[in-house]
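Single-chain item
Fold in token form
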Amino acid sequence: MPKLVVKDRERTWLVDLRPGESFVVGRTSVCDLFVDAPRASRRHCEIRATADGHEIVDLGSTNGTTLGGVPVLEARPLKDGDPVDAAGCLLVYWSRP
């Protein structure tokens, strides 16, 4: 089952990505994945399920989302070990256990 390692300013934890599951990352409790990152937007980015795994999409955030240091301007597929920076919150994608 794919996983995300999530690190915000207070903690680091692991999130299981169930098949077909998509979720929104942001700094409000209405998001599927709440992060404590002051520079993150309320609805910052989305991890979307695809036929081949998952992709990252920026949701028009103020401070942007990067994948491997490159700004996410459109949906980009995630590969093992890919680091996503959501304005100070680090997400690392792993498709294998």
Summary: The first strand starts at residue 3 and ends at 7. The two ends are 7 Å apart (CA to CA). The chain has no helices and eleven strands.
